[in-house]
Specification:
about 80 residues; mainly alpha; 2 strands; flat
């Protein structure tokens, strides 16, 4: 299958990258530039480390939240809510 020059839509699902990290982890840098302080710097570093750790485990943010919700809910799910049983 030949790659045509007008098929740029195929790259629409790729994760945006900012050099070596996910571009979403660079968003806290905006807050750092708007309010420069040690606390903001530490929060930005923690958020960036969180995103880098997610990328290391091959998670995206929506997948991580689905995994977290399933972990909190537990293995047993009822078909009816507890208040109608």
């Amino acid at each position: 299958m030949a790659i045509l020059e007008d098929t740029h839509w195929r790259d629409a699902a790729r994760t945006p990258r900012f050099y070596f990290m996910d571009a979403y982890s660079a968003i806290p840098l905006l807050f750092l530039f708007l309010h420069i302080s040690l606390t903001t710097f530490l929060v930005c570093v923690m958020v960036m480390v969180f995103f880098i750790a997610l990328e290391k485990f091959k998670f995206t943010l929506p997948v991580f939240f689905r995994w977290l919700k399933a972990s909190i809910a537990g293995p047993m799910r009822t078909a009816r809510p507890w208040w109608r049983q």
